[in-house]
């Protein structure tokens, strides 16, 4: 049986997408999740899931944490990002970070069904013409994304707090860990991103348009 996990924090969108896909996947089990934690719990409940359709900005998935967490914990499950934004920069980011495909939310249902079949079959899927547009993304951004991909979900969480202006002690309190642990995370972040200061880390996040 084909299993597809639809992870989006808008119940109406999840229900609409699940209902629209049923005629194309009559023998499939479509599972729904409303947050990243919920999605990870659902993946843990089932022996196999063939595809995750992931909303970028669902709770817990900010700063691409959704893709990175899923890639880290379930590296063999393909991820199709479903998003209201279809800018070439966003598409480049999710593809370099490990997505199997990118589906704008305005995509017709028949095309979404074809995209799902392609991704389950191991093919990448992008909207028509998008692959050519990705060639215009500058090499510096691609290199930065490759480095960003090496960060762990915890390190991304630390980065998000740095961007919000929190000090190490405050971050430690928010994450319920020691200040020494936060310092170790920051050192690892700087090393992986090949930078020297936390200010540079925040500027890089801004460059990646992480929000």
From TrEMBL:
It comes from the Bacteria. InterPro entries: CheY-like_superfamily, EvgA-like, NreC/VraR/RcsB-like_REC, Sig_transdc_resp-reg_C-effctor, Sig_transdc_resp-reg_receiver, Tscrpt_reg_LuxR_C. GO terms for biological process: phosphorelay signal transduction system; regulation of DNA-templated transcription. Residues 3-120 form the Response regulatory domain. Transmembrane segments: none annotated. Signal peptide: none annotated. Residues 144-209 form the HTH luxR-type domain. SUPFAM superfamilies: C-terminal effector domain of the bipartite response regulators, CheY-like. GO terms for molecular function: DNA binding. Keywords: DNA-binding, Phosphoprotein. The modification 4-aspartylphosphate is found at residue 55. PANTHER family: HTH-TYPE TRANSCRIPTIONAL REGULATOR YHJB-RELATED (PTHR45566). This is Response regulator. It comes from Alteromonas profundi.
